[in-house]
Amino acid sequence: MSRTSARSGSPFEAAIGFSRAVRIGSTVAVSGTAPVWPDGSVDPDPAVQARRCWEIAVTALEELGGSVEDVIRTRQFVVDAADGHAIGQVHGEFFRGVQPASTMVVVAGLLDPRWKVEVELDAVLD
């Protein structure tokens, strides 16, 4: 099977050696995706951060031939449980019609202290 990758321009991709997303056959895995804008800024609002994460992740999925409808699993890592509702609402904006298997986990911290959420997704394309 062929392997294709998508990149998002994150400086961590080259430094750490990973791809934003990888497709092998009909399976796509999108890496942990943080709420960073192209200029390196991060909005402090957790809902804005979640929306930015999902925009980046879905763009990578689309670059590899998939769409939101192909998503079978999502993961959301949140730093503060109090932000869970706002972050979950944004998840619903993207996936309400698809309803993938989903996990939201509260973690002690993420790579950058400005980040309140980081997301991943897996998809199987028809």
Automatic annotation (TrEMBL):
CDD domains the UniProt entry points to: YjgF_YER057c_UK114_like_6
SUPFAM superfamilies noted in UniProt: YjgF-like
Origin superkingdom: Bacteria
Annotated protein name in UniProt: RidA family protein
Matching InterPro entries: RutC-like_sf (IPR035959), YjgF/YER057c/UK114 (IPR006175)
